[in-house]
Design a protein that fits this description.
single chain; alpha+beta; HIT family, subunit A; five-stranded antiparallel beta sheet; 5 strands; 32% helix; binds guanosine-5'-monophosphate; binds zinc ion
Length: 140
């Protein structure tokens, strides 16, 4: 499956160049063109899946394994102190390219990249009710 208008499908097909760091039969990892920090890379399936829910579980496992390997190499190659692995799903979550991908972002102690702001529950009843609602959704 591939989407004609998808930039990552074109990269996976070799129609648009990228700085590749890792490749297997099913996935590709390459440098992000607009890095948060230098060495920021993406891991994508070669086939077009739009987000986490579209992705077959087995392929998701391969992507995590690739993220571990490539992430370790990025940390070593850049001398990073840590690594963020982030996935944006849907526009509201910041997804700009609708072909599933993980971000591997090397982090440095003084890089100034702030964590997102946290909020709080009104009370424990609210938190408990929401946890129970989500748990029921999972059970179906
Ligand atoms: P999203 O916001 O969808 O999670 O992230 C998409 C990412 O893809 C962005 O960080 C952006 O810099 C990167 N990107 C978009 N177009 C290209 C491209 O043509 N080549 C590469 N290497 N990265 C791209
Ligand atoms: Zn695609």
């Amino acid at each position: 499956m591939s989407n004609q208008d998808c930039i990552f499908c074109k990269i996976a097909a070799g129609d648009i160049p990228c700085f590749k760091i890792y490749e297997t039969e099913h996935l590709l990892s390459f440098l992000d063109i607009g890095p948060v920090n230098k060495g920021h890379a993406l891991v994508i399936p070669k086939e077009h899946y739009k987000n986490i829910w579209d992705l077959p579980a087995e392929l998701g496992g391969e992507i995590i394994t690739a993220a571990q390997m490539a992430g370790d190499a990025i940390v070593k190659a850049t001398g990073a102190d840590g690594l963020n692995i982030i996935m944006n799903n849907n526009e509201a979550a910041g997804q700009l390219v609708f072909h599933a991908h993980l971000h591997l972002i090397p982090r440095f102690r003084d890089d100034g990249f702030k964590h997102w702001a946290q909020s709080q529950y009104d009370n424990m009843d609210e938190a408990r009710a929401l946890a129970q609602k989500i748990e029921k959704m999972i059970k179906g």
